[in-house]
Amino acid sequence: AGVNADGQSVIVKSEQVAVTAGKKIVLTITASTAGTETGYVIYRSRLNGTNETGRLIEKYLPVDYHDTFSVQTDVNGLSPAEIITRIFSYNPAWLRALYKFRAFLVKPFGIETKTPRVKNLIVEENEREAIMRKDDSHLLFYVSVFICPEEGGRQTTEISTWVKYHNRIGRVYFFFIKPFHRVIVPRVSKRVLIKE
Questions:
Q1: Among 22, 138, 153, 160, who pairs with 68 as Cys (CB 3.0-4.6 Å)?
Q2: Cα distance between residue 159 and residue 189, in whole Å
Q3: pTM over 0.90
Q4: pLDDT one-digit tens code per residue, 117-151
Q5: C-beta separation of 163 from 141 below 8 A
Q6: CB-hemisphere CA count at 13 Å for 35?
Q7: Residue 121 to residues 8, 21, 44, 183: CA-CA distances in angstroms?
Q8: What gap in Å lies between CA 112 and CA 130, rounded to an integer?
Q9: Closest of 64, 86, 61, 60 to residue 73, by C-alpha
Q10: Which residues are CB-contacts of 81 (< 8 A; sequence separation ≥ 6)?
Q11: Which sign does the torsion angle of CA 151, 59, 133, 65 carry?
């Protein structure tokens, strides 16, 4: 069989299966009779065989930075917007102290540090995802909360941060904030979502 520019031979598709979001499938790969394969490539299309994921956040791309943290829990009945509100309302003493320290450091640069009402920042939502948007002089950031239902009354909640720098100050600011962000977001998300 011929080989394409990517070094792949003819694609043999034995079956096409539609998978509901949050569900799992078992994929079995069987070598050809000749056994000459050196590897396999699995192609996964998204929504209705297109490259669309159905995620609301996609319309706000591209960005300069992105991360996602996941928390697996029992189904809790909270909407994505309620989860965003709870995450940003969680305000223990250690977090208030970090915010005060941040405000002190960025004051000379004129960066706003007051926290507005989260409900006013939610720009879009559906039953599975909510998007929060905050635009400052130095950067624009979005928070997406996406709920992936699973079997057995479980769900995975993905908390994603998407950042677009407006200028050099935004890039430098986020460089120093990023290590704290990577600790705070998963810790707060778990605290909010997992009942202890």
A1: 160
A2: 8
A3: no
A4: 788 899 999 999 999 999 988 999 999 999 988 88
A5: yes
A6: 0
A7: 47, 27, 34, 23
A8: 24
A9: 86
A10: 119, 122, 125, 130, 145
A11: positive
Return the residue matching tokens 């043999």: 12
177, 148, 185: which is closest to 67 by C-alpha?
185
Tokens found for residue 189: 């998300």
Q: Which two tokens stand for residue 38?
A: 């050196």
Distance CA 115, CA 137 (A): 15
Q: What is the pLDDT along the chain (196 residues), one digit of tens a residue?
A: 455 555 556 555 566 666 665 666 777 777 778 877 777 666 555 555 554 567 888 888 889 999 999 998 888 889 999 999 999 988 889 888 888 888 887 777 777 777 667 888 999 999 999 999 999 889 999 999 999 888 888 889 999 999 999 999 999 989 988 988 998 999 999 999 986 4
